[in-house]
Write a structure and sequence with these properties.
Number of strands: 15
Structural class: alpha/beta
CATH superfamily of one domain: HUPs
Number of helices: 14
Order of helices and strands: EEHEHEHHEHEHHEEEEEHEEHHHEEHHH
Helix content: 25-40%
CATH topology of one domain: Rossmann fold
Largest sheet: 6 strands, mixed
Shape: elongated
Radius of gyration: 25 Å
Strand order of the largest sheet: 1-4-3-2-5-6
Distance between the termini: 80 Å
CATH class of one domain: Alpha Beta
Strand content: 15-25%
Length: 424
Amino acid sequence: MGRNPKSRDIIMPMPNKIANKVVLAYSGGLDTSVAIRWLLEHKCNEVVCVAIDLGQGMGRGGAQESLLPIRDKALSIGASASEVIDAREEFINDYCFRALKANAQYESGYPLATAVARPLIAKLLVETARKHKADAIGHGCTGKGNDQVRFDLSIMALAPEMTILAPAREWGMSREECMDYARQHDIPVPVKKDKPYSIDLNLWGRSAECGVLEDSSREAPEDAFGITTSPELAPQQAEYLKIGFEQGIPVSVNGKKLSAVELVNTINEIGGRNGIGRIDQIENRVIGIKSREIYESPAGVILNMAHEDLEYLTMIKEMKHFKKLIDQKYSEMIYSGRWFNPLRESLDAFLDTTQERVTGVIGLKLYKGKATVVTRESPFSLYNQGLATYDKGDTFNHQAALGFIELFGLDMKTYYQIKQPVEV
């Protein structure tokens, strides 16, 4: 943990300030960098910054970068203390892989990379706030986005006694005005007016919004993407990938056992260079407006595809069809910030029982932006070639079909036998 040598402990809030000490979720970006100075001017006497390492340093090659420069940057702006928490393994194991059991994708496309990170960040903010004896928690969310809901609901659940501060909901500055404010106060920010994207990045994926992306009639420019190769520039030869699962959890890539972070990094690298995981969608935000979102999630897309295909191989029809309802509800709860709702914990218990036989190896073919499942193996496979084949070796009782169809359609047959014309 770093500490600003110029800071001093202040026992009571100064007049007109509502908090003594605020723990701020700090990313090093425009809004949270401006928020440090703005909070000190308007809301509190002391700001403690916390940067949560969820794999933000992941680039095209999946390499990790140190967040220590971000820690030092917070101190230079005016934070009294600043620390970095490495939560990558917890993020993948306890959040992403839980979501994977539910094939969690909001509105059939978005693998929830940003959304599933928010409850963990909120949990760590609460723990840090209590450690520093802070009386408020702050974040950089605006009043139009989903993240304000996710952070606020999570903090309300875990620390109902805490004051929640969201400067960007209050200060009324546009993005351009924030950049001007930063320059006036000598706050370094990694944003230029000719490329004003708002980026969120972690191991599970990357999101980009703002700027030209807000025009839904325009194709997203190539510079809006950061972790995937353009499908047009991807290799001319297909690449094959085998993912091993144990009880619904991915554990190996191409036969090699890997830790959770290593596995996701590896699939991000392989999928990214083949242009897999680009998503451009109009979605319904929690607060009721539609937004255009650009996502990249090579690992999220590939693992969800492989996992669900393995479920079809190993689950009976009724369980799989019913589980789809649970999957949708689980996805919506993550998206809307209700991770700490008791219902989510109950759904986890159900999902865990469904995954007991979701073990096996799924093979995929990756080619120029498209991933396709091509092979499936499992010791619990319900696929019986003898029943499925039309060739020699067919073991299916064809004569049984006649009686099945008679009973299966008996209700409709009876209805139409007695149906009378409707009088008008």
